[in-house]
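Recall that a protein's primary structure is simply its ordered list of amino acids. Everything else, from secondary elements to tertiary packing, is in principle encoded there. The following example makes that idea concrete.
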Amino acid sequence: MRKIAGLSPTSWLTTKSVFSQVFAVVVFAIQAPILGPRAFGLVSIVLVFVGFCESVLGNAAADTLISIRKIERLHFDTMNTLSIAISLACGAAAFLSANLVARWFGDPELASLLRWMSLLPVISALAAAPTAAAKREMQFRPIALRTMVSSLIGGVVGITMALTGFGVWALVWQALVTRVVASVVLWMAVPLRLRLGFSRGACAELLPFAAPILLSRTLSWGTAQFPRLIFGLYWGPTELGIFGLAARLCDILLELTLVPRYAVTRVELRRFADDRPGLLAAFAKVLTSVSVVAFALAVGGAATAPVLFHAWLNARWYPGILPASLMMLMCIPSVTHYCGGAVLLAMNKQGSEALSSAIQSIATVVAVMVFAPMGMVPATAAYAARPVLLLPVPALLLRYKCDVPARLLFSAQAPALLAAAIMGIGITALRIMLEPHLRAVILLPLLVAAGALLYAGAIRLLLPEIARDYAARLGFRRG
């Protein structure tokens, strides 16, 4: 236990992400054939209306508390009070608008689902203060334990209810139980007491940080949820559920490769505020290490998607193969956006990070509104192309706000991108040759193994230091 407790912050967050995402895949693999795309589409629509507090208010509150250089208990108490008050208002609005939303989407079942899920905002708001307290001290163990324990308990509830015939309600109760357990575990794991209070002075200190962060998080949330809203209106719950699976696979990759490193980098790089050479060196190292993992999983996932769907799911899900491939490839440009945003926040350039989010949100609205009527594949392709077309935005902001040259931004990722391209071509060629002769459940592990060998060889040639580092971690001696 001592060895586990001594894991680094990045290792704790990576452990959390790996466990929660792998377990989520297991839960989904059991539920998907039973519930079908429509159930997941219905819950996706509901989460558009109740997810604001969790994805925006909770994260914005935590980031605001992290940004305060000299923090006192009154800051936490004030933020608790504000978060809970706003969350209560949001939950009440969702509850009262349930019938309107059901009529809007033409599905009466949405009303009862939305009423129950309106409990989520208050439950999620309770976790903001302890999350910030743990992150400020670089204590990511409580956050990891919270996610793993809550995912496990909520997943067991969701699987049990799906197997016993509760239909879409299995997903509703899975979400509720997961959030309740997460809040309870986190408060038990940090040295804070849940208290309410309000201080005008503390509020005045929080506001300059909260305003741009709240704007940024709102725009990021809108970027993710607006497509689901519009796609649901045009396509209905079933096709939205298929798109949701594609988006979920992308989210899994982001959670495994970018989110843990983003959370640590956003805090870790603060020490280079007055050290530009140190900032450039540390940032280049982050970009390289993140891209090595992210590019491999994104390209490998896209290349194996056809076999993965046939080995894993039934025919109701097969229209999602191409959208899933496109969404997973979106993780490649996301490395630049995530890592660039972490640097801007670390240097207290919250306004610039908010501007980047605003531009992405505008691009999302345009892409969704133009391409949604054309169908799922064109709309998904347009949605996935956004971060590629917007790469100049973080490059320019980092150049003019943090004096980070664009050549560093892209040169640090180039070797991993080339290695991933080599792997992707090899996997695709092998799949085309063997697919007519082997069942999907046999072909999938062969493709994974072949891709891993190809990528390892390419990384050894292009990034020998990274290859030696990973070999050492795996227990192989040099030479």
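Residues 1-198 form one domain. Residues 127 and 183 are 5 Å apart (CA to CA).
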